[in-house]
Amino acid sequence: MTEIIKPLPADLPAIKSILSQWTETSEVGKYLARIENEINGTAEFNQHFWVIKLDHQTTGVGGLADPLPKSLPFATTSKPGEIKILYLDNLNRGRGLGKELLAFLENEAKNFGYTEILIRTASRYQATAWDFYQHQGYQLVGYLDTTMAVFKKTLK
To answer: What is the pTM (predicted TM-score) of this model?
Structure first.
């Protein structure tokens, strides 16, 4: 059984473990601080995070926010949102949890009034995230630099 909920302080060690599988230590600390800020009611930049749990175990984390200014040139609607993170524990990949979490984030984006979703993802994730997002209907719309691609999906 899966559930998607707002993160709680007890989820932070699992979130740290998941983030550590995918990104640098500095990025892990940055996102943990942002998630803790939301838990404490001090979120900035309209950032919102959720965890997906499988049998009560935190197995993934995702987040939405207003887009960074450097992402805005890729938007084609007046109210874009941006997926900040979407990571799963490596042990639980291939079970449809990423699709479930992404669909949840898209629905939340609609609830916030966003009309499209932008996603920035590093070129090192080309074999994982890039394919995943394209299979979920996202289009590669450009590059911020040689290491960062931007994907987009219009919400209906």
So the answer is: 0.94
